[in-house]
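Below: protein 1.
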Amino acid sequence: MLPVYQAELVPTDFALRLRPPFIACVLNLVVLVVAKFCIRDWWGAVSLIFVVLMGMFVLTGQYRVNASSALFFCVMAVISGVFDVISCVLYFQHSKYKLFDPKATKLALLAQVVFLTSPLALFLAAMVSYAIFADCRDHSQEFLPLRGGAFDYGINWEVAPVNAGSSSAPRPPPAPVPFSGTGQRLDGTTIVRGSAGSQPGDTRPPPAAKAPPATASGGPAA
């Protein structure tokens, strides 16, 4: 997935010098849109229109060049260029005319020129837009971890301050508490531990409680 930049990158002098070549690339794509409509390549023309609209976003914004939008334009142009390469191969495989065949009609020759130049124009525009974005990224102070095209995991990130009262040393684990209750076995016998006259591992049942002495009337003593 691509990264979303909330802050606009400040264009450098090199990026501003690339603005006229990028405008020329966008105008070339506009000409290809008109040519695709002429050869009745409707879907190719519509997809190229969206690429041109994205190129207009590169030329707008707070500065004369929007470097953040240049990255998205580069991605769109590369994807459209790949599909145009596939369309070019399929067209020449199913066409009855060879490349620049003298017997071909003017419309067929125009279609051949469009299918050949469209991917080249898209890849050229993608290269210019990525050069704009890469130069602005490398000279930006807000996106230093993105230098070199990948995140720099060796950078010293700022650590949030720790409260003065808290200690960073790990606390020792609590001491283990031995079991001091009465154990029970599956056969119902009780393990008596720590009682007088018993040995460790004694499994005798606990002694029954003695009944209180009876009185003359037969009831328990008060």
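Below: protein 2.
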Amino acid sequence: VRAAVQASDVREASFSHSGADIFLEQDAIMMRYTLQNIIMLMAAVLAVVLLLSADVVFTGVMATCVLSCCTHMFGWMHLLNVPLNALSLIPLLLSVGLCIDYSTHVVHAFMAGRGPAEERATAALRSRAAAVANGAVSTGLSQSLLLFSQSLVFSTFFQVMAGMVLVGLFHALLVLPAFLSLWPDLGTGCAGGGEGTTLLQPPRVVALPLEQEAWCVDVDDDSGSGRASTATPAASLIGSPPPDQE
């Protein structure tokens, strides 16, 4: 309509107006407005995560998870033919903060664990899966009454919030454990921190012939050079063998 007015001879002397203008203007700016709000909301949520966790790696994992959840939410809306408008935008923005809640528990349990990545992911899933599932079920039950509403506002809210529950559970219980099980074991088994830190390796038992003597080598940890400072015969530490085994 604006193009037709501009192409006419009257131009600035006239303007288009109708009762549907408010809806047409909304559709014209909705995508740009949605992306702008999602970016601002993600920045605010991740800033709080970084402030509370003080862990850049943890925040990076959560940023990836939130971005993936938002992408899946757009796919969910397309699957249910939910249009992007003022009604669906509100629960869509709410889903950003609610989806991250499910994933935070699993990632936090993984980061606090010890051992190989696969074992830590399994332990995190065992300790947090029930609580995350209970939270998702309670959220779904609280929204279930909206399913029977005849109002477009309530039905749209229910559809988007149901997608939020499913997408959040999908990432927290399936995607994240699979992703974290492939996490590189960087710095595991490291005692303390800072300079001069030595990696704690599991003790190894070496079978030696009876005529050879085993020595226990003590590493100088204070110097951080890794050079042997003392060497002690192993027999003096574990005692002489019994007479019937000599």
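Residues 119 and 137 are 27 Å apart (CA to CA).
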